[in-house]
Amino acid sequence: MSVFTSLCTETVSTVDGTITIRKLPPQALAAAQKANLLRSVNELKTMGGPAFLKELQALGGDAAVKAAVSDDPLLLFDTLVLLERGITAWTLPMAKSDEAIADLDDETQTLVATAILRLSKPSLFGAAVAEADQKNA
Known about the structure:
- It contains seven helices and three strands; from the N terminus they run E-E-H-H-H-H-E-H-H-H.
- It is mainly alpha-helical and about 140 residues long.
- Strands 1-2-3 form a three-stranded antiparallel beta sheet.
- The protein is globular and about 50 Å long.
- The termini are close together.
């Protein structure tokens, strides 16, 4: 595997064709995290701010959040940012564009965004996956 993220690519198969993805550089991952955080903060404000935070603490608080993120690291990132920055090409019926990426169904968005994140940060998916990826490199 190359030290240049743009040279680390994979192909993901879908029912309509294939999607070529790349490993994302740290700046792109940070942008996806920031977009997710901003969206979360805005949603929190609409749900009641501090009062809602107290309700969340009663439901398990940080431990519950850590358990959910451990099961699905994609929760920490904005899916569309990952897709827009991580998809390099595809053989799907529509031309690749930000609008077409946003038009992908939920299952495909999740599949491809998870593949991009797994390629970019395998450590988020557990030690066993990271070891397997290193052996395959």
